[in-house]
Amino acid sequence: MGDGIMIPLPATLRPYLLGAAGIAILAAAIWVWRIDSLRASHKADAANVRREYALFREQVEAKASQALIAQKAVNAAQEQKWKEKANVADQKHETELAAANAAAERYIRDNRLLRQAVDRGAGGEAGGTAQGDGAQGSDRSGEAADLVAVTADDVRICTENTRRLIDVRDWALGL
């Protein structure tokens, strides 16, 4: 077979062989045309999808931007409302603190204890009594009552802290 010998085809088959070759070439051409047609169709579909996606993305970004602007406006309005409430609460606190401090100063003035030398007995009991500025010489608590002395500064601090806590609570309940 390596000598280059060819087997002759019968003459009756030659026209059919040429027709079969033509049909094969035509089928291959149709197949290539079909592949190109499908490729073009898919490219067109992909381009349409890209356009639709770009349009959708623009719409989503526009709506998100509008929603963000609207939310910022709502936040700004709410923040302004809170600032106004805070200012009102601060003013109320200052007014009430001034009144509470005045009341504390009256209390300090009316209930001030004078320091006296106190005689201590063997049992450690106080032998003397303390007298208040506003006590008018009488023991208001009774003779056997235990007394606790608080400095004027402590009364002021307690008054301020109590007023602050009451005002903070009122402010928080108003939110």
Automatic annotation (TrEMBL):
- Comp. bias regions, Gly residues: 121-135
Per UniProt, the keywords (alphabetical) are:
Membrane, Transmembrane, Transmembrane helix
Start and end residues of each stretch annotated as Disordered: 121-142
Q: Where are the transmembrane segments?
A: 16-33
Q: What is this protein called?
A: Uncharacterized protein
Supply the source organism for this entry: Sphingobium yanoikuyae
